[in-house]
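Thread: quick sanity check before group meeting

JM: Hey all, I'm pulling together slides for Thursday and realized we never actually wrote out the predicted structure for the chain we discussed last week. Dropping the sequence here so it's in one place. If anyone has concerns about the input, flag it before I start.
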Amino acid sequence: MRFAMAGLLGLVVPGAGQAALGRRRAALLFFLPTAALVAVGMGLLLTRGITGVVAILVTPGVLPALALVNVLFALWRLAAVVDGARRTNRPAVTVGIVGTATLVLLVAPHAWLGWSIAAWDDLLNSTFADTDTGQVQPTDQPSAPGSVGGWVYPEPTGWDWPDRTPAPGATPAPPKRPIIPGSGTLPGLGVAVPWDRPGAVPWGSDGRFDLLLLGSDAGVDRWSRRMDVMLLVEVDVASGKVAMIGLPRNLWGAPFPPGLARDSVACGCFQNLLNAIYVEATAVHPNRWPGTGAVKGIGAARSMVGELTGRPIDAVLVADLWGVIKVVDAMGGVDIDVPAPVYDDHYPDPILGGITLSIRAGQQHLDGRLALAYARSRHQDSDYGRMVRQQTLLLAIRNQLGPATILNAPGLAAAAKGFVWTDLPRDSLPNLVDLFGRAQTASVKQVRIVPPTYPSSITPAEVVKIQRDIANLLGVPVPPTPSPVPSSSPSPTPSTVPSPVPSPSPSPSPAPSPVPSPSNVPTPLPTESPPAPTESPP
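JM (edit): ok, ran it. Output follows.
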């Protein structure tokens, strides 16, 4: 049993079994590499802290190197166990005892660690692009409604399905169908974007990092996507202080950025709900916006928010709201102090359809579906109440990120893959980890562009007020007054792909009516949002 015990000691500390047998040289040989690894890890932890260690781990090339070290160290531990137990005169008993312990204490932990490293590296590689490869991203509206993968998609109700007949001389476009929930159809790695990607230091010389968070709501009751969550998060690089600027989805009359879109309408503004800008750019007037496929819609939302807030957007992060369910479940749920009860007698659950939703006030532990419902329900109050809950959920998730989350790395990485996209490059992650490490416990200022402070249908004068109030909140200079008339400057390399054949426009809205479009510009298709600054269907 001495040798079986030596093998077991070697599982705990390589070299300990040899020391127990009096084999000092062998003990030193097996122990020194282990001591070196522990010393390096402790040194980094003491000098850099947990945030600094994570920043090192996400540096490109470090995780694959760590995976190799994991394999080599597992083999080294196995060699120490075999060497300690190999002289036994009862091999069957020793193999049974030591072999079982080896599976539990050596093989399983190293296999889990290797799986976790591979999952995180795959997630980072599939979400963060190293370079702009110039890939063309196809549209995420590829085929007709019907039955796909067991899901049945009826024709949308409440508005006409777009005419699929191509315009004269145009290349026929593929018919459209609703996005498949949970399919993860966000843009691919390295897809070309019509704006400058951020670099390794992803913020500009103003010392502030402006990240636009877009929540893409794509479900069985609609085709294409709606950006139902638009949240501009600004972090002061020096202090880590955070400001969150919430934009309502039903804001009407937001100014277009300089370019073809602004020049095409008399008011230079978007005469629809703000959350319909993705559809405007990808399906209604794609020839007015640069880019290709899904990136065209993301870029349109990015430029609109920058124009409205007067803030230079450094990067954009898009999350499919269906992915919220998967990510929160992978985290083991999220704890939220619900300030007021939420009751919705017809909440559109993405799986069960219309259900009665009831969430009590107080401390609650919500799984993925309830967390999404908490952030998405609006029938009991309004879009503005929903904005408050969305920010509450984001802050709750921020506060819960920690060691327990990291331990479930494979599940979390698998849940997020395909449901999150960003223009941030992989080599920006070390700087972002350092920045958000400071921001995790910093104070948070919040402003919401909602009534009664701001009307739901805005004019150029209200745009000036919004930009001034945001600048004052952040302590930055007020941007120049935006031009209330269309700009003559062209949009950067707009796409020449013709729009779909027009359908009749919906009834007029309270916002100013545009002048007739130029002869070569198609009439807008009916969008999935109603033509008035009122709440649209969920």
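AS: nice. Confidence is low (pLDDT under 50) at residues 132-183, 484-538. Residues 2-127 form one domain.
JM: adding both to the slides.
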